[in-house]
Specification:
mainly alpha; 0% strand; 4 helices; elongated
Length: 79
């Protein structure tokens, strides 16, 4: 891990938690995925809007999600 990544981790979780992490996971290499909260939020919104019988086109036109229309269509169709 680059030293600036370690510094960021230390800043985010604090010295005590960093020490615990180093004690239990020192020497390991692992990937920390991004939080899926944005997608979960969109799925929750789409489910609610479907229940309210809002049209697919109106949902896809919503710019608040900052996603492409194609991505919103895919999420809509999977939900």
């Amino acid at each position: 891990m680059k030293s600036q990544n370690l510094e960021l981790l230390l800043e985010l979780i604090g010295i005590e938690n960093f020490a615990k992490l180093a004690e239990h996971c020192g020497g390991m290499s692992f990937y920390i995925p991004k939080m899926p909260s944005k997608k979960l939020s969109i799925l929750r919104d789409i489910k609610l809007l479907k229940e309210l019988e809002v049209s697919k086109d109106d949902i896809i036109k919503a710019k608040k999600y900052e996603l492409s229309c194609r991505t919103l269509r895919r999420i809509y169709d999977r939900s």
